[in-house]
Amino acid sequence: MTIEYKLPNLGEDIETGDVIGVYVSIGDKVVLDQPLLEIETDKAAIEIPAPSDGTIKEVHISEGDTIKVGQLLVTIDDGKGNSKDVEVKEASKIETQDEAVEEMAEKEVEEEVNADPEPETNEAGSADDEVEGQKEPGEEAEMSSEKTDEPKDEAEHEEIEAVDKTNNKNSSHPVPASPSVRRLARELGVDIETIEGSGPGGRILEDDVKTATQGNKAKTSTKKQKPDAPKIEKQGPSGTSDTDKWGETERVAMSKVRKLTAERLTEAWKAPHVTQYDKADVTDLEKLRKEFGPEVAKEGGKLTMTSIIVKVIASALKSFPQFNASVDMENGEIVYKNYYNIGVAVDTDRGLLVPVIKDADKKNMTQLSIELSQISEKARNKKISVDELQGGTFTISNLGGIGGTYFSPVLNAPEVAILGISRSAIEPVYKDGGFLPRLMLPLSLSYDHRLIDGADAIRFLRWVIEALEEPFKLPLEG
What we know:
About 30% of the residues lie in helices and about 25% in strands. It is α+β, with helices and mostly antiparallel strands.
């Protein structure tokens, strides 16, 4: 039987993804759950597995494509007969109908141009100003007086296409391109009105859009600046070299992970941030960590300072519920969470990801250590699922493995607090009548001042510090 395999549902609020790898070709033998391709969504990189054993008959996508849920990916022959190609035929029919509608729109635009040789002007200037290579008015009048159904020569035909594209900016007629090509142009930040199509009748193809992003064949309209208009520095499309007044520059498109990070941090920065700094004496805790580390390692985990602090934070949130909440300004409400899901920031080659340990309050440190090791590895190896990146109520960011003394972490919206951990160091501390070498751990607590006051913040941080300094408050199995 022929299996038409479409992109399955990827999770809440995820509709599209970029294909970053295709692992199969026509004729390849595949087995159940074998990775067919890899896509990058706004939240994670995900491998799409084969739905059954079989042979690849067709591959309908390629690397670099942006695909959506329900889109046909591959056609697989499982060798059981009873071919079923209905879905492919229907998809092909829909594409054909789209092309027919757009061809009709093109003809209507051409008829309007032939009937009215004087293009309409707009606020930015005349159509002659906007269209590159426009002929003189006398030549246009001579062309229109012929009243022929087709242009007499190639130059006139190119002129009409140029006027077509200019008029399309101010009319309801679309430029000749399929919906998938339009979507690709939007996602790549390319104005489809400025692209010269290489397909039949000037139809814009995906290759034309990709070429435009590389700056090789993009056809941009030229506008005469108004005399008093400020000078605008040249800006090239993504992936091209350019120059500014100081030297050469290069434009590189953001990855989905980086773009999402930028969007979320921009949203989070709307909250008034305050950061509280302090240090914890973890000398005794470090001894216990090394003592019990081998026992946790036997269970498949690694007892780290981060996994210990996850347990501490889960307990602290129960004593300070305002730190396990979010702010609904639209309705003027505080949303308290009755679950304790701790996100841990992980540095990957694609950017910062925050996998979430669900119900951290119900797990002992051995369980937390195992889960933290597994989920961090999955994030680095692009095996993390969307569900494992959602639902956090508080975030921990540990930069101690890299270095630094303090930093001010930015909230992970809609959460209202985040704890930053820096590198511990031996310092002289006055204790029991003298200075002793103690291992001190710098901590940075950032919080949303709309909900959390400074006094509450320092109480919360001191609670965490006291729990770290009194290891018996943290039973290894409870």
